[in-house]
Amino acid sequence: MTIAKSVLIVFALVAFTATFVRSKTIMEGYGEGSLRPEQCPSECDRRCSQTHHQKPCLQYCNQCCDKCLCVPPGFYGNKELCPCYNDWTTQEGGTKCP
Fold it and tell me: Which residue positions does the secretion signal occupy (predicted)?
């Protein structure tokens, strides 16, 4: 039974470490100022590539990227990794950045 507990503990530590390393890797490289202005168009192309509203998505993404120098990972969500991008709102209080 001691071996089983040891194996279980080792497995739990490996799983925790893998999760921590993965989340740290995802978060590194994102955040305000993580991009250069010339990188914004390609990052916004990536961010907006799966929406049916390409033109407004690209327009607002590029505006947000120009201001924040950050575009969140993925096609949707993950805005918490770019606080400036996440917190910029419209006059009506909605989110400005896609």
Answer: 1-23
Higher pLDDT, 2 or 39: 39
Q: How many CB atoms lie within 10 A of CB 23?
A: 10
Residues 6+ positions from 80 with CB-CB distance below 8 Å: 86
Q: Sorting pLDDT into bands at 50, 70 and 90, what band is 21?
A: very low
Domain boundaries, the chain: 2-87
- From residue 72, alpha-carbon distances to 25, 46, 49, 52, 95 in Å are 14, 10, 13, 19, 14
User: Which of 94, 33, 40, 85 lies closest to 64 in space, CA to CA?
Assistant: 85
- Say if CB 79 and CB 85 are below 8 A apart: yes
Read off the pLDDT of residues 44-64 as tens digits, 9 standing for 90 and up: 999 999 999 999 999 999 999
**Phi and psi for 95 in degrees, rounded to 5?**
-75, 140
